[in-house]
Write a structure and sequence with these properties.
This protein has 422 residues and is of the alpha+beta class. Among the domains are: 1-151, Beta Polymerase, domain 2 (2-Layer Sandwich), CATH 3.30.460.10; 304-365; 375-421, no CATH class. 52% of the residues lie in helices and 10% in strands. The chain is built from 21 helices and nine strands. A seven-stranded mixed β-sheet has the order 3-4-5-2-1-8-9. Strands 6-7 form a two-stranded antiparallel ribbon. Strand 8 and strand 9 (139-141) form a beta hairpin.
Amino acid sequence: MSAEVSLSGRADWLGDKHLQQLLAVLKQGGEEARVAGGAVRNTLLGQPVADIDIATTTLPKETLRRAGAAGFKTAPTGIEHGTITVITGGKPYEVTTLRADIETDGRRAKVTFGRDWKLDAERRDFTINALYAEADGTVVDLVGGIADIEARRLRFIGDAEARIREDYLRILRFFRFFAWYGDGRPDAEGLKACARLKDGLAQLSAERVWSELKKLLSAPDPSRALLWMRQAGVLSAALPESEKWGIDAVHGLVRTGTDLGWTADPMLRLEAIVPPDAVRLKTLGKRLRLSNGEADRLRHWALTVAPDAKATETELAKKLYYGDRDGYLDRIRLALAAARTRAVEDNQAMMEAGGFSRLLNFTLKWEKPVFPIKGADLTGLGAPPGPKLGATLKNLEKEWVGSGFTLERGALIERAAQALES
């Protein structure tokens, strides 16, 4: 136990009266309860805290009983694994009974409940995730997590291979947490274990793999983690489309995003490391079970050709009218990042970057204009419904777009009348 380290004074969430009441209720009668995991880790790292999880010696049914008796709302969200969600003060808290694994198969574990905090800590993945905090803020460290946080070092608890064989998702979590919290080189033993056991990723569900990859790609700068993933063969195992394409573009994309204030975009970063091949990306989408929106975004990006940096706004507007705006936004952002990266040593690239920046700003503000002629306008001129009417309407629209959307309704009606007479 590291009693000398405390969250007191640097964790506003710890003073929440509802959290304190919940901890007090769980600790009655000689039981124990502590905040566990991410909230403690992030506070020590000076990063925002989103979710607050609690570990307790009370058994799940007793947790339910106590929370209910105190007037808290509860939901047995993972009761077979000891987890109860308790809602108080409008916030959900996951309360989990101390556990030890009795059987694992690389994907899930059978657990037994217990009262041993060290065993509970040792079943977790990384030392920085196995820290606890008492209600007064005192940090309880049973696996050397505080030293690793101070060094920004990501390290498996105990034997790295053993931890990975319990759940192969920990390979991806190793790189994800390294991207978010690590510094320097990844832990050598952890890296070797991930490389040796990477084939175990094939046992995992697509949803779990994509969830981890997306979290990794959402890190402030995932480029170092991706580099180590590639060197360990893990990136090719999880994302084979990236194998012969490369990840060099990610670093420039991240730097450009930081310079220009872009929100971290995991899909844009994914596009930076896979080939723009609509067929292969369709396969990727099915394999990883991407959402329809995610799969559509990849497809539109693959089918969109980036505009020339010297293109005029009118020229781009014509392309946008017939194309997909989001596909162009992704293409232009990636082209801008690539040009800015080359501009360090290439004045021509600096000019290109200026052009892409101009086109990006235009595209962000662009709204698709509405063609001012409808089929009813042509039938009003005496045109019978049918193929000729449709062809006339289509040709008029092309003329309107070709004019830079400047042809007015009256002029279009006149042209329609002339076309129908011929």
